[in-house]
Amino acid sequence: MSVQEVLLQTDFLQRGQQISKAYEIAEDVKECLGCGYDENLDGRIVVSVDGKKYYVKCPVMTQQCRYGQYMLELMEKSVLDHVRSISGVPSRFHQALESPRTTSATSGVDMWLESKKNFLLLHGSHGCGKSFGAAYALKMLDRKALMPYWDKKLLWQHIRVLWTSSYLLTNVDDVFREAQFSPFLIIDDLGSEESTSRARGRISEVISARYDHCRLTIITSNDDAVKIGETYGRRVYTRITESGMIINCGERNLRLE
Ligand SMILES: [Zn+2]
Question: How many separate domains does the chain show?
Fold first, then answer.
């Protein structure tokens, strides 16, 4: 090894030590020193070690801090990516989920999230935005689950979701099974299944299983709770009304607006 090579290595080692020293010093920073005020800093702060300047990520992570904001944006993006990745969520909602407009359905979902009830029935005529309301609920719940960890990327964990039509739920055995156990279930368009006693029995069984284990469930339907009771029986009606919130999303056809 030549003298130059040895010198280079020493310098490299020293630099490595100085960088870890810089991060150590940064750990003691308790208040954001304005890591975003200077465009060149962009979420970093300057630390001096042995007369040399080092740029390290701001360790403070408040929402006022540039690096904190960056992490928050990353989390929001990860929520949207997750919702978009769930099969069954109509892709026509993907764009609108970024900044959803307020409708009866989304306001209902906001109330439901506050209520801590396990069931939510979004009913109303075609095009009133009830399915979008369910997708919006997914986004908001995911966000709620991640928010406590927004500054700790590695701890992010999304909620597990099954989104299905009642037709698939009653016809595909795997979906029927999963619908009973999934931590969060969305039955989109209840009433669109075949009108057989077997299909009605399967719906009733899924609702009961979810009721018994307090599992989060959103149902969208053209039918209100009374009509659902008439179709699937008194037990289903009681389960939904007892542990759930019922939102009439209205008669307005938002698709035509
Ligand atoms: Zn900062």
Answer: 2
Helix (H) or strand (E) holding 226: helix 225-232
pLDDT in tens, 137-152: 999 999 999 988 888 8
Is residue 69 domain-resident?
no
Question: What percent of the chain lies above the pLDDT cut of 70?
Answer: 93
Q: How far is the CA of 33 from the centre of ligand 1 (A)?
A: 6
Please tell me whether residue 250 adopts helix, strand or coil conformation.
coil
Q: What domain range is 47 assigned to?
A: 3-60
Q: Tell me, yes or no, whether 242 and 177 share the same domain.
A: yes
27 falls within a domain: yes
Cα(150) to ligand 1 centroid in Å equals 15
Using DSSP's 3-state secondary structure scheme, residue 25 falls into helix
**Gap from CA of 28 to ligand 1 centroid (Å):** 13
Cα 70 to ligand 1 centre (Å):
10
Please say whether the beta carbons of 187 and 220 come within 8 A.
Answer: yes
Q: What is the DSSP letter of 241?
A: H
Strands (E), 34-183: 44-49, 52-57, 119-123, 161-165
**What's the CA-to-centroid distance between 24 and ligand 1, angstroms?**
16
